[in-house]
Amino acid sequence: MESTVLQPHTRTLQHIPRWAIIRTLRQQSVAEHSYYVAIYAAKLADELCLSKNDKLWCMTEALTHDFEEMVTGDIPSPYRSSFIRNDKEILSAPHAMHLSITRSEPELGDVCKNIIEVADVFEACMFLADEFYMGNSTVKDLLSDLMSILEAKAVKLGSEIKNTLIDHVNDDRRTRVLSARGLS
Asked: Distance between CA atoms of 135 and 69, rounded to whole angstroms?
């Protein structure tokens, strides 16, 4: 494992706060976000009956989709790319990690890309839904906007998957459990 991807500096994602420009009740790190995106991507890959290799590719892409935030912090995507344009290590890290884990390119690259986009937005919606149901009304408009984006992106994976994701975000039962345990 010669790849610099697996060196300890990648652990810095656990110290980079997400939602830096939005008031939240609970702090979330970029590493936590990436973990959940990987879990959701794996589930979506299973739902779409992807091969083991493509599922692994989706999971590693999910884990590395915000690698550049090691350098930039959590800022909107259009600004991030201008900061890291010349950082070859950060730009090549996700691909090197994919190859070290899967040992091959994805068979269904476009499908994997769609899965990651959906899983990324879904995770953001889940976090904001938890925030909203725990009493943070300041996230309501952002959650509504992201739900529209989720619907538009998830339809590429099928209407049944889209409906399941939307229903899951709107289900506040998991948040009531969190609130009962003192996180509200």
From this structure: 29
